[in-house]
Amino acid sequence: MHQALYIIPEWFFDFSVVMEILFSLVTLAVAVSGMAVYKIIKDKKIWRFSLGFLMISISYAAWAALNTHIASTLDKGILMISLTNPPLMHVLAVYTYIIFFIAGLVTLVYTTLKVERGELLYLLLGLALTAVVSSVSMLVTFRIVALFLLTYLVYYYFNEWYTAKNKRTCWTLAAFILLVLSNLFFIFTDSTSTFVLGHIIELGAYLILLVSLLRTLRIK
Amino acid sequence: MNKKRNRLEIIRDILEVIRNKSGKIKPTHILYKSNLSHAMMEEYLQELKDKEFIREQKTQTSRTYFITEKGVRYLSQYALVSDFTSSFGLE
User: Fold this and answer.
1) B7, B69, B87, B91: which to substitute to probe chain A, counting the most A Cβ within 10 Å?
2) How crowded is the C-beta side of A138, counted as CA atoms within 13 Å?
3) With contact defined as beta carbons under 8 Å apart, do A20 and A71 qualify?
4) What is the distance between the alpha carbons of residues A44 and A25, in angstroms, rounded to a whole number?
C-alpha cells in the first residue's frame, strides 16, 4: 500500500527544512519558559505542559533531521516521502516524529483536563499511539488523531478565552486554530500546493505562539 | 464587584500579607487579611509549606508563619507566572 507522508515541490524543500527547525525552536522556547515558571511555582500542570511542548519540539527536530538527511537523495522535481520500503533511518525518524508529536499533544490535552489521574494519561496515550501505530494507513491515521487532539485544544482555549475574555489566551487559541487548519491541509495533501499551504499556515501558528511567548516574557 | 480571585492571586495575597508583617505572621492575621474561610486558608497554607514558600514555627500555644526566599521570589516574579499561566490556560 502506498503511504505518502508528504509531497514536496523541490523549490520548497529548503524552506520546509528551515520552517521545521523554526517550529522545533519555538516549541522548545515554550517548553524552556514553562520549566522556568515551574521552578518558581512548582505546579505539576506547568511541568506537564512544558513536557508536552518539549516532546513536540523533539518531533519537529526529528522531522527536520529526516529532511536534511534525504536532501542529498532529492531527485529533480517533486519529492514524495514514502513509508514503502524506506531505509531504516528514515523509518526511525518518521516514528520519532509521529510518536513524539502525538505524545506531546496527548500530554497537553491531559494538562488541560486539570485532573491528577496518571491512569487517564496512560489510557489517552495508549489509545492514541495504538490507533496510529497499528493502522494500515499509519500516516493518515496520525494526522486524523492529531487533528482530533488539536480540535479539543481549540475547544479548551475557546472556553478559556470566552469565560475570562483574556487577550493572552486569544493568541494561543488563534495558534491552535491555525494548527487545526494546517493539519486539514496535510490530511488532504494530494498535490504540492496543499503541502506548501499547510506548511505556511503552520508557520503562522508558530509565529503567533512565539509572539505570545515574547509578550509574556516582556521581550520586545 | 471584585472578580473571583484565582489560585495564583490568592497565593500572592497570602504571601504579601506575610511580607507586609515583616515576614512573619500568626494564622489569625492571615485569616483576617486574606479573606478566606478557615478551611481554605489551612489548605493554602499547607500548599505554601509544601512548595517551601513559607515556613511554620509551632509553640505549645501558637503557630507563626515566615515567608521564605522562595516565597519572596514568587512575589517578585508573580507577573511572569501570572502572564504565562493565563496565556496558556494553566490557571
Assistant:
1) B87
2) 17
3) no
4) 23
- Helix crossing, A10-41 with A44-70: angle to 10°? 160
Map A64-78 to HEC letters. Answer: HHHHHHHHHHCCCCE
Range of the domain at A158: 5-219
CATH number, domain of A182, equals 1.20.1070.10
pLDDT tens by residue, A126-161: 999 999 999 988 888 999 999 999 999 999 999 999
Whole-prediction pTM value?
Answer: 0.86
Measure the CA–CA gap between A42 and A31, rounded to whole angstroms.
15
Residue A4 CB-density burial (10 A; 0-12 exposed, 13-18 middle, 19+ buried): middle
Beta bridge partners of B56: B65
Which among A42, A49, A164 is the nearest to B90, CB-wise?
Answer: A49
Q: Which residue has the cell 532529492?
A: A74
At a CB cut-off of 8 Å and minimum separation 6, what does A70 contact?
Answer: A79, A81, A90
Residue A179 and residue A110: Cα distance in Å, rounded?
18
Number of domains into which chain A is organized: 1
Amino acid at A152: Y
**Interface touch B74/A169, C-beta < 8 Å:** no
* Element spanning A196, H or E: helix A192-216
Residue A197 is placed in which grid cell?
499551504
Per-residue pLDDT of A3-48, as tens digits, reads 555 667 778 888 889 999 999 999 999 999 999 999 998 889 999 9
Option in A41, A157, A216 nearest B83 (CB): A216
Check if the interface score ipTM surpasses 0.90: no
Residues pairing with B25 in the sheet? B65
Nearest one of A213, A181, A215 to A200, comparing CA atoms: A181
